[in-house]
Design brief:
Number of helices of chain A: 6
Oligomer: heterodimer
Shape of chain A: globular
Distance between the termini of chain B: 47 Å
Structural class of chain A: alpha+beta
Order of helices and strands of chain B: HHEEHHEHHEEHHHHHH
Largest sheet of chain B: 5 strands, antiparallel
Helix content of chain B: 40-55%
Strand order of the largest sheet of chain B: 2-1-5-4-3
Number of helices of chain B: 12
Largest sheet of chain A: 8 strands, mixed
Number of strands of chain B: 5
Helix content of chain A: 25-40%
Order of helices and strands of chain A: EHEEHEHEHEEEHH
Structural class of chain B: alpha+beta
Strand content of chain B: 5-15%
Strand content of chain A: 15-25%
Radius of gyration of chain A: 17 Å
Largest interface: A-B, 57 and 48 residues
Chain lengths: 218, 260
């Protein structure tokens, strides 16, 4: 199991994975969570933010996509700054070029062992944090149910609201930002027993550094 | 984005408001909790906030299933001491309709709504009445359900509190934020503790890891066996592990000891 990162530049070689991702997103966000606004006749959840600047992190096992997340640069139009501006009452924590808007996060199979978060979910969180560190970003923005806040803070992630929560489609919803840091990556990995990077090293054009020594088993 | 909007959510009902007239208080409170370095700081921040908001008591606790004592699950407690002792010694959590309701909903509720749930149980009414005698007549409870399937709650007690849905939503956010932060401090693996393994502890763990018994190690290092066990026990406590083999596994996994 590993994470494939799809940018505009490598989209051609990963086309099949991206197609699977769009179909899974439709199944999860429309069919299961009932976001009817996103319903499409072709059963693919694709919108204007799935453009060449979007970065898709896809959790892959063999040829199967198990989960995904979409990260879009804040310097371009984003879901947060076009659709959810009413949730924002406070300034962003830094320059727009230092941030990524984290959207369409999902895990297909939330296998639970009864004790902790599904390992797949933790791997995807960890991968997103590591991706941000490797690409020089300093914060994520997000919009989610407030229930998500409990989970994120329980991993020792530094989370801050961008405004007061509001009811959206019957769910208390908040916009916020997450600090990108080595510490956040370490905690996610340590709490979940993740001992290595799951990102594809070729995508980031570095080899040795990917398996950070402090996470490797002796 | 929506990491997860799977929880079906009714409108907030029967809301308590307290003397919270704007969201700034919550923002600043969240900021302080974000920077807190241990659970007692979080307690201080929450207590200070809840007093300013007009609440008189506060508890953050996990809720075990029936038959399991509550006390080890209490995270922070700012209840009247006498009531706390009575509640724990008499296992009132088994009867308390406020605690019972946390298993059935994710939505914050006022205590008296829960009382009306369970009027058929005389024990429930008894607990509510006794709580009132100790000054905990009214309040609001915020259930917390974690991804590992545990239930918990953050419960504020106070009188004469006004209704305001926006304030309740903010209080809900605060409770979830604080609960997650407190949980982070209690997670079994803690890097800050890892770094405090002493040289002697590491040395002994290395011998344990290659299969030496306490007696062997005592001979090798010219120590008493109880000293060896003392160091292993300290390391186990620091790593938050339950057994000797788990301690070794953790120590190896995080490169606290190396085995050649």
């Amino acid at each position: 199991m590993h994470i494939e990162t799809i940018f505009g530049t490598n989209i051609r070689s990963k086309f099949q994975l991206l197609e699977q991702n769009f179909r899974h997103r439709h199944k999860i966000f429309v069919d299961r969570l009932g976001w009817e606004d996103l319903r499409k006749a072709d059963q693919r959840d694709v919108d204007q933010f799935d453009n060449a600047d979007a970065q898709h992190l896809l959790l892959v096992d063999g040829e199967r996509v198990l989960g995904g997340a979409r990260l879009t640069p804040l310097t371009n139009p984003t879901l947060l700054l076009s659709t959810f501006t009413h949730l924002i009452q406070m300034p962003l924590p830094g320059r727009l070029e230092d941030g990524l808007d984290w959207t369409r996060h999902y895990i297909r199979f939330a296998r639970r062992n009864g004790k902790r978060l599904a390992p797949e979910a933790a791997i995807l969180y960890s991968g997103a944090m590591e991706h941000a560190l490797l690409t020089g970003k300093r914060y994520f923005t997000f919009v989610s149910s407030i229930y998500m806040i409990e989970l994120l803070t329980s991993f020792n992630w530094k989370v801050s609201p961008l405004g007061a929560p509001q009811m959206i489609e019957g769910s208390p919803t908040i916009a916020g930002w997450i600090e990108v840091s080595e510490e956040a990556l370490f905690h996610m990995n340590a709490y979940n027993g993740i001992t290595k990077s799951h990102l594809n090293p070729k995508t980031y054009a570095i080899e040795e550094e990917m398996n950070c020594p402090q996470y490797a088993s002796a | 984005m929506a990491f997860d909007r799977t929880v079906p959510h009714r409108r907030y009902r029967g809301v308590l408001g307290a003397k919270l007239n704007n969201f700034d208080n919550i923002f600043s409170c969240l900021e302080h909790i974000k920077r807190a370095e241990n659970d007692s700081s979080v307690l201080d921040i929450l207590r200070d906030f809840s007093e300013k908001a007009g609440f008189e008591s506060l508890i953050v606790s996990g809720l075990p299933h029936r038959g399991i004592p509550l006390e080890p699950f209490v995270v922070i407690n700012h209840w009247p001491q006498e009531w706390y002792n009575r509640y724990m010694s008499r296992d009132y959590v088994e009867l308390d309709p406020v605690a019972r309701r946390c298993f059935q909903t994710v939505v914050p509720f006022i205590w008296r709504e829960a009382a009306s749930d369970l009027t058929q149980h005389s024990g429930a009414a008894k607990v509510m009445n006794e709580a009132a005698d100790f000054g905990l007549a009214e309040g609001i409870c915020i259930p917390v359900h974690t991804e590992d399937g545990m239930q918990g709650c953050v419960s504020f007690g106070g009188k004469n509190i006004d209704d305001d849905p926006k304030v309740l939503m903010s209080l809900h956010l605060l409770a979830l934020y604080a609960h997650g932060r407190l949980r982070a401090f209690r997670r079994p693996i803690n890097i800050l503790q890892h770094s405090t393994l002493s040289e002697r502890e590491r040395e002994i763990l290395r011998w344990v890891a290659i299969g030496k018994t306490s007696l062997d190690i005592a001979d090798i290092l010219s120590l008493s066996m109880s000293t060896v066990n003392f160091h292993v026990e300290n390391a186990r406590r620091k790593l938050g592990t339950s057994t000797r083999s788990h301690t070794i596994a953790e120590a190896v996994q995080y490169n606290l000891i190396s085995i050649h």
